[in-house]
Amino acid sequence: MEFITWVGENQSSDYRAHLANILKNHPEALQEALSSITEAHKKGHLLWSISRKNPALALAEIQKMMPLPSQELSSLQGCFGVLAKDHYADLEAIKEQLTGNSRTQLEKVLIGHRIKDNFDEIFDSLLDQPDAYKLILSDYSIFRQIKPEDLIARLPDFSPAWRDALASSHHQLLPGDSKNMGKWLGMDWEASGFSKEQAKKINEYAFTYVVQVNPEQSLPLFSDQEFSEEKKTKHPRNGRQSDKFR
Question: Which one of 40, 93, 210, 236 has the largest count of C-beta atoms within 10 Å of its C-beta?
Fold first, then answer.
């Protein structure tokens, strides 16, 4: 059992080859090891290795472990990522057994697996949940898979709760998106349903962000911004970031 646990925790291709041999020739030893390991993080390492060779076996063991608190469920994130390809429905069933942050962790894995090709479907499924925008906007690994034009097209569909939240936490709408900041700076937020005050907050944040990551891109757009004279005078016109312009 100690050897199997060790193999599971060491993720090189050589160790995985040993595990593949155990899976094929000594499945009973592997089952015994899985039954004996009580620490979730140790079992998680082993299950991740198993999931790459025998996803059905890994899934069956994970189903036995449910439900898990979030601090233990995190050890299974790698497994969920592998299993989502062929066992998406099974993971959905597991999600229904979870609550709170545990459920959110798994839901993010499932959304991340599908959002690139099914953005509108996932977006529609989340609209009636007041905080669900966080599932697709606050996780950069998910957000980076969304085409800016797809998200912009759906801005008018944001619920009032989403608009209120995003106007107060606007960084969640534009997390690290320096490549496409020009598209956000040119947005007519009011035309998309945001109030004038909300639009001002979001646009000011977007402009402040582009000042920090790409001052040259911000300069041609500077005169169009509705900032106070105080903020305009603190703009880093020489291409240097100003800590006061935040």
Answer: 210
